[in-house]
Design a protein that fits this description.
Elements (H helix, E strand, L loop, with lengths): L2 H14 L3 H14 L8 H27 L16 H6 L1
Length: 91
């Protein structure tokens, strides 16, 4: 095993343990060497992002629409309204 291989194995071991500096170094090294760390996960990632972006855009459009067009007030059904004058006088 060469020194480079040993160094990369040690870097990967540190990354697996949660070392954030090793994560940064590993990503930079993979980029320099042209290694795809996502290895086949790209399609699943794009689908997840697309669905998330659609939800974000829909929420934004809904908020903007409510600024321009005021929604009609929502009234309670008649059986829930307390418009009975006898009930107010008896209390």
């Amino acid at each position: 095993m060469s020194m480079a291989e040993a160094g990369i194995k040690q870097l990967v071991a540190q990354f697996v343990k949660g070392n954030h500096q090793a994560r940064r170094d590993l990503i930079v090294l993979a980029d320099k060497l042209g290694v795809d760390l996502m290895a086949g996960q790209q399609q699943a990632l794009q689908e997840a992002i697309a669905a998330n972006h659609e939800a974000i855009l829909n929420a934004f459009v809904d908020r903007q629409y409510d600024r321009v067009v005021k929604p009609a007030p929502v009234f309670a059904p008649p059986e829930l309204l307390d418009d009975d004058p006898q009930a107010e006088n008896q209390g």
